[in-house]
Write a structure and sequence with these properties.
Layout: E1 5-13, H1 20-28, E2 37-44, H2 50-60, E3 64-69, H3 76-85, E4 88-93, E5 99-100, H4 104-115, E6 119-127, E7 140-143, E8 159-161, H5 162-167, H6 180-191, E9 195-207, H7 222-239, H8 244-258, H9 264-268, H10 272-289, H11 292-296, H12 300-310, H13 314-324, E10 327-339, E11 342-353, E12 356-357, E13 360-363, E14 366-369, H14 375-379, H15 383-386, H16 389-393, E15 396-403, E16 409-411, E17 414-424, E18 431-443, E19 457-467, E20 470-475, H17 482-486, E21 491-493, E22 498-504, E23 510-514, H18 520-524, E24 532-536, E25 539-546, E26 549-550, E27 554-562, E28 568-578, E29 585-593, E30 600-607, E31 617-625, E32 633-636, H19 656-688
Parallel strand pairs: 1-2, 1-4, 2-3, 6-9, 21-26
Antiparallel strand pairs: 4-8, 5-9, 6-8, 7-9, 10-11, 11-12, 11-18, 13-14, 13-18, 15-16, 15-19, 17-18, 19-20, 19-23, 21-22, 22-23, 24-25, 25-29, 27-28, 27-30, 28-29, 30-31, 31-32
Helix pairs in contact: 6-7, 7-8, 7-10
């Protein structure tokens, strides 16, 4: 009797070319045993080399299957064919140009069984594509459309109980059409008894192809697109009564599929000759389907767009869109430093249009948004549509870590306050102001990865401001205080210990290297004082005061390499905390046998953690052993000959003033190190005499 499978992964396939390789590789890496899941690739008439590639894979791997069919025009029929062929208890839909986390199937299945779930939604990460954010702030064993933002997640990349799909006859609409996933997922949400959201592990990586040929990026034909959209609205109407819940669910489509298409770059990128057709279809559908309660729940920046749609003012929407393209999150890093095993960050954020802060007017007890609209357009807007009072009070700032490799994101714990600063003279009895958010975030590398240690790699630090309908990300660090710069030092933390190196990129942004993924550690280990060498009987004790932080003693190592012969001598070392004016310092001490060191100069390398978690890092330090009975000499070399260039990582630019300040600070550090080394050399010479 065949073993019951836990999960069937259904992958619709059409001409993915090399983009399918990441998908296949991720399915082959699953922690779930091969005999407990299957992958079903439904080839929808591909004309590239993919069919032969999949057949070869299936011939080698019994848990991989391929079904070939004539092209159906979209993903609905291939998914339905996959459902019919699935033998697993659960069905998980994956697109052929995406991939899944190595433990995704095991974790999602276990979570489904734990909660008796009909649907499990695993945390998503977007590489060039948007994914739900608020939904994955926390894990929901039992989520509903009323208590969680499930409606923000309408893509099919979820795990469904197969018996649940069959019982409710849930299948995707077929044919050449759009939004078939909205129809399927919306119906499933209403039919399910238990929906679970797993947010402590990235299960799904939603990827935008470099050729931008993902199905979701194809040109939109307004009439057909919005006709398909109304099918999802019909499901909501059938399953809800008029009132707040229906309005909130409708609001998702009004906000994402209509208003956001008429804002900023999305509107301006639509050819001028197509803008009117798009606008008219949105205006018609929203007028027919959405009552006033739908728009009333929107933030002011979106309510203004909704009002301009209702007032038939496309030209004003185009002007407003041009202004919105300039809105950014101006994020300043006020302070940075290690405290009790965590990197503490203080920051200030505000929304700006170009260099000008977004302005608000306080009058008659209300805070009113001041977009740059023409006088007649502003007169067409009800005062309630510009009222930002409630939304300003709901503004928030978040700090995230984003993986450079996978785009996985983790929220850091943040506390924040707000303040107002005068912007200029008000209107009549009013007073205009700008709005700022001040946050404090805590980055604990041992828990920041969703309650577990961060994975080895480069993590970019991102500040996110959400206010009045705008959500804007900014890399943190390119605008920062001198105090923050001086406290950006490496740390050795955790059990097993790992090196965690905050550093500034070429553009001045803050990134964190976990586990010595790069050579940043050697660049950041500036010496606050000179190294020392002491005698202990026939041995030597080398002490290196490193610009680093450790909470407890850590086993490391020192390696001396002879610069002429290439001979190497290794010695165990201990990295221990030291006190150094608050900027972070640890002493790495090693005991060396004098008899092992031949005459000449030896370069110094260090390893701060155990071998499996880090290699040796060269330092600008040398030990010179004289030919006679004299005492060996340790000295710090000029860092300017060893420092490596930083790597650019983004378009943000650092101010010239800060660049000059940082360069001067580094020059001062090198000069102090050379002076300290010179003093030590003179002391050793005097002791010889």
């Amino acid at each position: 009797m065949a073993k019951t499978l836990k999960v069937s992964v259904v992958v619709p396939v059409y001409n993915p070319g090399p983009y399918i390789e990441d998908c296949v590789a991720s399915l082959m890496r699953q922690s779930l045993p091969d005999d407990e899941y299957e992958a079903i690739f439904v080839d929808d008439g591909s004309t590239d080399e993919t069919p032969a590639r999949l057949d070869a894979l299936a011939a080698e791997h019994p848990h991989l299957h391929v079904i070939h069919q004539e092209n159906s025009g979209w993903s609905g029929k291939p998914r339905n064919v996959g459902i019919a062929a699935a033998r697993g208890e659960y069905v998980f839909f994956v697109d052929n140009d995406d991939w899944i986390g190595d433990e995704a199937l095991e974790r999602m299945y276990a979570f489904a069984k734990e909660n008796d779930s009909d649907i499990v939604i695993g945390k998503m990460a977007g590489k060039g594509r948007g994914v739900p954010r608020e939904l994955f702030r926390r894990t929901y064993p039992r989520a509903t459309l009323a208590n969680a933002p499930l409606i923000d997640s309408l893509t099919p990349h979820k795990m469904f109980r197969k018996a649940f799909l069959d019982e409710h006859q849930l299948r995707f609409p077929e044919g050449r059409r759009r939004l078939e996933d909205h129809v399927f997922v919306t119906a499933a949400f209403f039919a399910a008894e238990t929906i679970s959201v797993l947010s402590d592990y990235v299960c799904y990586y939603h990827v935008r192809r470099e050729d931008a040929s993902n199905a979701g990026f194809q040109r939109l034909e307004p009439k057909g697109y919005f006709a398909n959209l109304t099918e999802a609205l019909d499901i909501v109407e059938k399953n809800t009564d008029p009132g707040p819940l229906r309005d909130r669910l409708y609001r998702r489509w009004f906000r994402v599929e209509m208003i956001e298409r008429l804002r900023g770059r999305r509107l301006l990128q639509v050819p001028a000759e197509d803008q009117r057709a798009l606008f008219e279809e949105i205006r018609r559908i929203s007028g027919e389907r959405f009552g006033p309660g739908v728009a009333e729940g929107l933030p002011p920046s979106q309510r203004i767009v909704a009002a301009l749609i209702h007032a038939d003012r496309l030209d004003d929407l185009v002007r407003l869109a041009a202004w919105e393209t300039s809105i950014v999150n101006h994020a300043e890093l006020d302070d940075l430093g290690w405290y009790e095993g965590a990197l503490q960050l203080a920051l200030t954020c505000e929304l700006r249009a170009g260099r000008a802060p977004i302005g608000y007017l306080h009058a008659d007890g209300q805070d009113v948004l001041l977009p740059p609209l023409a006088d007649d357009a502003a007169g067409a807007l009800p005062d309630a549509d510009r009222d930002a009072t409630a939304r300003l009070n709901q503004s928030r700032v978040d700090v995230l870590l984003r993986s450079r490799e996978t785009a996985a994101e983790y929220f850091l714990p943040v506390t924040f306050t707000s303040s107002r600063r005068a912007l200029g003279e008000g209107d009549g009895d009013g007073e205009s102001f700008r709005f700022l958010l001040h946050g404090e975030a805590r980055l604990d590398p041992t828990t920041a990865g969703g309650g577990v240690p961060l994975e080895r790699g480069i993590w970019d630090v991102v500040a996110r401001i959400t206010s009045c309908g705008w959500t804007k990300d900014a890399r943190l660090g390119s605008v920062r205080s001198v105090r923050a710069s001086r406290h950006c030092v490496p740390a050795v933390l955790g059990d097993p210990a790992v090196a965690v190196t905050p550093y500034w990129t070429d553009k001045g942004n803050l990134s964190v290297d976990v586990g010595e993924k790069t050579s940043r550690l050697r660049q950041e280990l500036l010496f606050p004082t000179a190294p020392s060498l002491a005698t202990a009987g026939s041995d030597l004790v080398l002490t290196l005061p490193l610009r680093a932080v450790t909470a407890a003693e850590v086993a490391g190592a020192v390696r001396l390499a002879h610069e002429d012969s290439g001979a190497m001598v290794d010695a165990a070392a201990v990295l221990a905390p030291a006190v150094d004016a608050g900027v972070g310092r640890s002493d790495l001490s090693a005991r060396l046998s004098r008899s092992d060191l031949g005459v000449g100069r030896w370069s110094v390398q260090v390893r701060l953690v155990t071998p499996e978690h880090g290699g040796f890092t060269p330092l600008p330090v040398s030990v010179t052993v004289p030919s006679g009975p004299g005492v060996p000499v340790v000295e710090a070399l000029d860092r300017s000959t060893t420092r490596e260039a930083r790597t650019d990582d983004g378009p943000e630019e650092r101010t010239e003033g800060f660049r000059s300040e940082l360069s001067a600070w580094l020059r001062t550090g090198r000069r102090l190190a050379r002076r300290a080394g010179g003093r030590l050399t003179r002391q050793v010479r005097r002791s010889r005499g």
